[in-house]
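Q: Please design a sequence for this.
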């Protein structure tokens, strides 16, 4: 199949997939921006956009009109009158049951802000550390996440004076399926579970997390990836609150910046790394919600696929004739390093253009102009060398020795 035909088919898939997405699940503007920051061939870019659109449709809940069509086992076997959706189902082999779903309707606005705990997010890092050091709660719970060698984990510890430290670990899996933000939410859920199972729970608790976004998720409309974990944590928090209504129970979830100056925070950093390396606490000890397989995060799936596309383009480019020449000049290509090198106010537009032409070998020297019959031969008109290449022009030609001497 020709590359032009592939590009046309992928373009058709992209248009149909994008228009098929309804119910507020549209492709984010950041998807387009991300595609523009890395100059991929048109066919690969369209392929990436189609995959993103398909993942968005895979997030549709049961209430959505397209959910039944997406789940149909017969959809892949249709041979005649195939739609763009059928082509997408064939092109991207995803287990739709294992992907997080986003509800059609957002959370009741009247419930936003009504939580069975207090949320404290200090103005800056110093205020956060100072507030944590002066905390008066009798029980301190710390949560954190970590990512090591492509694997993600979360952990939580509970510190109570006069009693041994309690710790829970949970290994989520690879970064191709889960995000660090999701691990933060898992850590908070583990921390709440430690509070729920604490004997003599009718006292004051402080749960510390170093991620503001994860804490603020409790006040959101629960329509973003990973928010099913926030909902599970909120349900557990309500259960703890209802069970301790007649006691002095109180809980504050506090933003604690970094892992410095506070003993629990520093211990937490080590425990989170253990979880990322693959350690998970016994099944009976972790929250019920985490005992079943954890759904894959759509953002992680899209990022992993985008990385595969970029790696494929890297290999294709470096094996090409022009890529081989470029690699001799800059071993990091293709990358954003070159774009950053020429995106500086110290260079004029003309200088930037010349650097780009030299690096891409599209410079009006005889070796290049001869290909388009704009020069009679590739011979250097200055010194008579057989081939006036960029290397010869910059480093070897005696006719430009004076200019090279000035630069040196």
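A: Design:
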């Amino acid at each position: 199949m020709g590359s032009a035909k592939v590009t046309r088919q992928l373009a058709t898939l992209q248009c149909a997939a994008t228009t098929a997405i309804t119910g507020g699940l549209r492709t984010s503007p950041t998807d387009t921006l991300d595609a523009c920051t890395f100059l991929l061939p048109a066919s690969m870019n369209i392929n990436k956009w189609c995959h993103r659109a398909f993942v968005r449709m895979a997030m549709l809940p049961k209430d959505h009109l397209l959910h039944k069509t997406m789940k149909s086992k017969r959809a892949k076997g249709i041979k005649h009158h195939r739609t763009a959706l059928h082509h997408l189902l064939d092109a991207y082999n995803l287990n739709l049951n294992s992907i997080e779903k986003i509800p059609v309707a957002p959370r009741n606005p009247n419930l936003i802000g009504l939580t069975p705990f207090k949320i404290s997010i200090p103005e800056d890092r110093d205020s956060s550390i100072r507030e944590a050091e002066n905390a008066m709660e009798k029980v301190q719970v710390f949560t954190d996440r970590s990512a090591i060698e492509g694997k993600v984990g979360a952990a939580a510890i509970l510190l109570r004076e006069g009693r041994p430290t309690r710790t829970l670990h949970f290994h989520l899996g690879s970064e191709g399926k889960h995000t660090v933000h999701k691990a933060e939410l898992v850590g908070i859920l583990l921390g709440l579970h430690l509070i729920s199972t604490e004997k003599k729970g009718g006292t004051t608790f402080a749960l510390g997390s170093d991620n503001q976004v994860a804490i603020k998720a409790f006040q959101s409309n629960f329509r973003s990836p990973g928010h099913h974990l926030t909902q599970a944590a909120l349900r557990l928090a309500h259960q703890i609150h209802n069970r301790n209504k007649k006691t002095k129970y109180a809980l504050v979830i506090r933003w604690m910046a970094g892992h410095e100056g506070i003993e629990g925070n520093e211990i937490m950093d080590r425990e989170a790394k253990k979880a990322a390396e693959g350690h998970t606490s016994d099944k009976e000890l972790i929250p019920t919600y985490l005992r079943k397989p954890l759904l894959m995060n759509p953002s992680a799936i899209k990022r992993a696929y985008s990385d595969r596309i970029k790696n494929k383009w890297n290999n294709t480019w470096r094996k090409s004739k022009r890529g081989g020449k470029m690699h001799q000049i800059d071993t990091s290509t293709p990358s954003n390093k070159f774009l950053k090198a020429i995106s500086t106010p110290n260079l004029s537009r003309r200088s930037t253009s010349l650097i780009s032409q030299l690096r891409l070998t599209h410079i009006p020297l005889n070796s290049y102009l001869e290909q388009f019959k704009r020069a009679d031969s590739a011979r250097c008109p200055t010194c008579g060398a057989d081939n006036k290449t960029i290397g010869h022009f910059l480093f070897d030609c005696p006719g430009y020795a004076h200019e090279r001497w000035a630069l040196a």
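Q: Thanks. Anything notable?
A: The longest strand covers residues 139-148. The chain has three domains: 3-101+300-306, 109-294, 321-407.
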